[in-house]
Design a protein that fits this description.
Elements lengths: L2 H36 L11 H23 L5 H24 L3 H167 L10 H14 L3 H8 L3 H24 L1
Amino acid sequence: MNSAQIRSADRALSVGTWLIVAGAMLYSILTVTPLAARHTPQEWRWTAPILPLVVDAAVVIVVRLDATLARLGGHGGRWPIVLRWMTGCMTLALNVADSALQKDLVGVAVHSVAPLLLIVTAETGLAYRRAIAAALNDLNARQQAEKEAREQAAAQRREAAERSAREEREHQAALVREQREHEARLAREQAEREDRARREEQAQTEARERAEREARERAEGEREQQQRERERREREAAQRRENERRQREQDARRQETELREREARERAALLSGGPVNEKLPEPRARQIVAAAVESGLPVRTAAELCGWSTGWVSARYQELRDAKTTPALEGVSA
């Protein structure tokens, strides 16, 4: 039998015990309450169910604590035994008292069934629980012993495996050490060969770099000479362009000065005629009016010089001013 079966039997014992206790308590309350009511004053008969409840509560305490002590493998001493038998005898006496007072032997036998069953069940359950606890302890002891034996065997197997693995690791380490020494020797030889080849290659590289550097320096010298020559030519070309630009600006200023002087002479010639009594031809009059506008002469003076009316001259003045204003506005809007 395993621990699960033992625990199942313990649960069945507990369920059966508590069913018997519950039935005996209910039967005792129903049997003892009328007896207690008949022997209690009228005004206190409502207290009749208290007595069977108190006695049955003591029975419940005894059964419960006995079950707990039995599971723990303990013993409460003499007083739990006294309490157990005292409550059992009280329950028996209270249940059969009414029938005994009436000298009803059948009633005594019938009413003694539940208390006796409760007393015997409590004692038997206690014995069963102690036996179950002992069986569980034995089973746990055997399982613990088997577990320790398995653990010891597993430890021995692990130790043997570790010893074998350690020997294997030492053998592999020796092989790896020999392999590393061989590889290190080959690596040293290879490094020496590579070092010789590297020195030879370095010497060749240095000679090649030296030749390339000398060629590069010569090429750079030639490029610098060409660059200086090109820069000199560019400076000379830039100087020529600057001189040409300055010459053009001087020529333009000279032509502009000559143009202004010529226009001034022409205006002076137009305005030097003095007042006239007759209208001059319109083209000639327009030239005089334009010269007067440029010279800032008043309208009346210009009218006297060309012989036309002041209204006509004023209109020409306005046209000339508008002609000057329009290009200026166009330049601003642009």
